[in-house]
Amino acid sequence: MTPERDLYKVHYVEDGLTVTLLLKDVSAQNDRAENETATGGFQMLNLNLSKTIETSPGHELVLSVFGKNLLDEAARNHSSFVKDEVPMSGRNLGLRASYSF
């Protein structure tokens, strides 16, 4: 059974700038089936900043900076068959660029 979870999201857009902050609050899961192990709760904080630049009519450059699991939680997906051996990804930071033409 999937544990309860709450999602909190702030999304802001202005002049080609987009900011998204997402907090996922997942409860511990102790109500389980036979041969299923319990899973602890966790909080996952993600941030995405993007800037869209129109280089010419119909052409856009999008530059992004993102961070996933910024709290560096040792989280486990309760519905995963390998949750006891393989935790979810730790802190992840990155840059992304795309060009549409």
Features:
101 residues; mainly beta
Total number of beta strands: 5
General shape:
elongated
Helical amount among residues, as a percent range?
under 10%
* Strand line-up in the sheet with most strands: 1-2-3-4-5
Oligomer: single chain
- Tally the structural domains: 1
Give the class from helix and strand content and strand pairing.
mainly beta
Q: Radius of gyration from the CA trace?
A: 18 Å
Helix and strand element order = EEEEE
Approximate strand percentage: over 45%
Low-confidence stretches: none
The biggest sheet, with number of strands, parallel, antiparallel or mixed sense and barrel status, is:
5 strands, antiparallel
Round the mean pLDDT to the nearest integer and report it.
Answer: 90
Ends: how far apart? 45 Å
Report the total helices.
0
